[in-house]
Design brief:
The chain is α/β, with parallel strands linked by helices. The protein has a single domain, classed as 3-Layer(aba) Sandwich (Rossmann fold), CATH 3.40.50. The protein is built from eight helices and twelve strands. The strands form three sheets. A five-stranded parallel beta sheet has the order 5-2-1-11-12, covered by helices on one side. Strands 9-8-7-6-10 form a five-stranded antiparallel beta sheet. Strands 3-4 form a two-stranded antiparallel sheet. A hairpin with a 6-residue loop joins β3 and β4. The longest helix has 17 residues, at 19-35. It is globular. The two termini are 35 Å apart.
Length: 255
């Protein structure tokens, strides 16, 4: 096989990554040892769900679990801004750093303190790099204008738009820009013209959109991805199930 491209995708999933992301990385590295080629991380930082960055840690003394997350400047940013546009608040990092020795080792605390980024997505990515998880891995970001400009057009998508002083991610449907407020409630917002650089895919169109740029030969799929990726969209791609890992939704904090 000529130059395999082994890809896995994931949103920013905590300032310490969730264990299922570590399992994807491990699966990709083991496959690379077998077949060679390049590993690509499709970093889907266009997603807007603040729950993606919940970081579940275990107290080293009591074993009690706690879920930590970034603090958000306002309700609109928290609910609707893409992760690359959710700002890291002054004071949040120092406050969180004081708690971390209860949950993780000193080297991870040091990585956390040294990371200086202005938004949530950059912060998570820098932490993963400091932890050594992305050595030799090419990162492609769904927020990058160049990536978006080269991606194929899809029928179902979101549009990044300015709204009340923030950048929000609105669903485009029937000519309308909609913010999902929960359940069947949507808020229609006004918006001007937009192009590919403002567009990001929905869950069901994400793989074909990503693949039009990355053109991977192998894709490491998580448990939920197995259910919604339409493999008929990529008949030449070999889909590999990620390795099993315990406590997959908890943070990976090994040093």
């Amino acid at each position: 096989m000529h130059h395999p491209i082994i890809c896995f995708g994931q949103q920013p999933c905590g300032f310490f990554p969730k264990r299922f992301l570590f399992a994807k990385i491990l699966t990709a590295r083991r496959l690379q040892e077998e077949i060679g080629g390049e590993i690509v991380f499709f970093f889907h930082d266009s997603d807007h769900d603040p729950r993606e960055t919940n970081t579940v840690l275990r107290d080293q003394q009591s074993s009690r679990e706690v879920a930590l997350n970034f603090q958000f400047e306002n309700r609109i940013q928290k609910q609707f801004s893409p992760l690359y546009a959710k700002r890291v608040l002054p004071g949040w990092q120092d406050k969180t750093a004081r708690q971390l020795p209860n949950y993780v080792g000193q080297s991870l605390v040091a990585h956390f303190k040294k990371t200086k980024c202005s938004n949530v997505a950059d912060f998570c990515l820098e932490m993963y790099r400091r932890m050594g998880l992305l050595e030799g891995v090419r990162v492609e970001r769904s927020s990058a204008p160049e990536f978006r400009a080269h991606a194929v057009a899809v029928s179902d998508y979101f549009v990044d738009q300015p709204y009340e002083g923030e950048i929000v991610r609105a669903r485009y449907r029937d000519g309308k820009l909609l913010l999902h407020k929960g359940g069947d409630r949507f808020l229609e917002i006004s918006g001007g013209e937009f192009g590919p650089e403002q567009i990001s895919p929905t869950r069901d169109t994400r793989f074909v959109w990503m693949q039009s740029v990355i053109r991977c030969t192998h894709y490491i799929a998580g448990a939920s991805e197995q259910d919604y990726i339409n493999k008929a969209d990529a008949p030449d791609v070999k889909f590999i199930r990620r390795e099993e890992i315990s406590d997959s939704g908890k943070a990976y904090t090994e040093e």
